[in-house]
């Protein structure tokens, strides 16, 4: 990680933010730096930092310097509210990129971001509850809702010829959202859920839940939870107890931490769904080349594409608005993300600001695809199927 990233990350962890000069324009970056998805975070911080660096190298933001001010949600609802309140009320940011987890994103939005009139764009929050937020047109995301991922996961399971599964999902916005959609789609397609358990986070043992889940004749255990918390513990304890040998998970479980904790051999028959990018996307290759040139590696990590795109879109919205007026930025976010307009891709900041100065419309198509927002700030998208490959994951299928 380069020096700039280290300084910004340290500021986020200490809760001090960054000090801006008179000609600086801040944007808020709300991330779950500590907590159950901490293992995901370093490359995502790099992705956000890269977007900011490219902007500053190609003319800056509003004629000055773009500054990323980080807030750490600690992976909790209260931590998210506290971090968001500091960003909007103390740092006075005009837009926030984040958060990542659905629960922290919604908590921050409802308690701090929406009341302050700040636009918010999440790269990864997938809960269906976000669709129905009373957000005054302020909350956006660039990944599809869990309603979509749950349906696609059900199709993937059926396509594998797996007709009976046990299911456990974490009792939060993320787990319930995908879990309930998966149940409906899988049973409608003819699958049978022989055992089901909604579980709580942060327990030391899930052996009692696993004993109940293993009583049926399930061919696999579907786990919808985070690898850094309950999901990883459930898989490890299921393997230790000899209760299940095949696991099916979603993006929260598609974490290299899971492979580190249980070993690749134990997961060789498992697979995972996760929001992904379109196949053979030149914009993705452009970002990955720039990312790896800057940081050496990591462009293929989960949600790098989405985090970069959401950050770049936030910066474009500020430039398009021509000021730090929050209401204008919310409107500008839709304008820079959606057709019609001249295409702009990752790293093409100089091109974008030239077009804006000429009064022309732009349409950002990113590494994760295009973001055509509906009236709820939602998008369609792509879901990938991933299998374990060495110490990482390999994508073997994309569903649009």
TrEMBL record:
Instruction: Output the InterPro entries linked to this UniProt entry.
Output: BCAA_transport, Leu-bd, Leu_Ile_Val-bd, Peripla_BP_I
Question: What family is this protein classified in?
Answer: Belongs to the leucine-binding protein family.
Supply the name of the protein: Leucine-binding protein domain-containing protein
Does the record carry Signal as a key word? yes
Renumbered to this chain, the signal peptide range is 1-22
UniProt-listed Gene3D superfamilies: 3.40.50.2300
Instruction: Fetch the Pfam families from UniProt.
Output: Peripla_BP_6
Provide this UniProt record's keywords sorted from A to Z: Amino-acid transport, Signal, Transport
According to the entry, every stretch annotated as the Leucine-binding protein domain falls at 26-337
Asked if the keyword Transport belongs to this entry, the reply reads yes
What taxonomic lineage is listed for the species of origin? Bacteria, Pseudomonadati, Pseudomonadota, Alphaproteobacteria, Hyphomicrobiales
């Amino acid at each position: 990680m380069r020096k700039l990233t280290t300084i910004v990350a340290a500021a986020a962890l200490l809760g001090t933010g960054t000090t801006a000069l008179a000609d600086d324009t801040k944007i808020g970056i709300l991330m779950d730096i500590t907590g159950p998805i901490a293992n995901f975070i370093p490359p995502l911080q790099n992705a956000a930092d890269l977007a900011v660096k490219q902007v500053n190298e190609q003319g800056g933001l509003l004629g000055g310097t773009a500054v990323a001010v980080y807030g750490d949600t600690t992976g909790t609802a209260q931590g998210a509210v506290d971090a968001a309140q500091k960003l909007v009320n103390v740092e006075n940011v005009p837009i926030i990129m984040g958060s990542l987890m659905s629960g922290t994103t919604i908590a921050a939005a409802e308690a701090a971001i929406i009341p302050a009139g700040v636009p918010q764009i999440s790269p990864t929050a997938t809960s269906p509850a976000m669709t129905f937020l009373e957000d005054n047109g302020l909350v956006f995301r660039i990944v599809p809702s869990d309603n979509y991922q749950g349906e696609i996961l059900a199709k993937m399971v059926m396509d594998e010829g797996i007709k009976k599964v046990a299911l456990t999902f974490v009792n939060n916005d993320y787990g319930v959202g995908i879990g309930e959609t998966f149940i409906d789609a899988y049973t409608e397609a003819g699958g049978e859920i022989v055992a089901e358990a909604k579980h709580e986070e942060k327990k030391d043992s899930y052996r009692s839940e696993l004993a109940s889940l293993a009583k049926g004749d399930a061919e696999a255990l579907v786990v919808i939870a985070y690898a850094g918390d309950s999901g990883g513990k459930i898989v490890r304890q299921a393997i230790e107890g000899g209760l299940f040998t095949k696991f099916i998970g979603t993006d929260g479980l598609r974490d290299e931490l899971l492979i580190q904790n249980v070993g690749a051999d134990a997961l060789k028959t498992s697979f995972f769904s996760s929001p992904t990018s379109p196949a053979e996307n030149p914009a993705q290759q452009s970002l990955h080349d720039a990312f790896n040139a800057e940081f050496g590696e990591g462009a293929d990590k989960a949600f790098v594409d989405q985090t970069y795109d959401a950050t770049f879109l936030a910066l474009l919205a500020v430039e398009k608005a021509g000021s730090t007026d929050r209401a204008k930025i919310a409107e500008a976010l839709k304008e820079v993300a959606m057709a019609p307009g001249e295409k702009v891709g990752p790293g093409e900041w100089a091109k974008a600001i030239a077009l804006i100065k000429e009064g022309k419309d732009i349409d950002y198509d990113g590494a994760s695809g295009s973001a055509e927002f509906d009236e709820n700030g939602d998008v369609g998208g792509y879901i990938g199927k991933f299998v374990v490959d060495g110490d990482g994951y390999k994508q073997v299928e994309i569903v649009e």
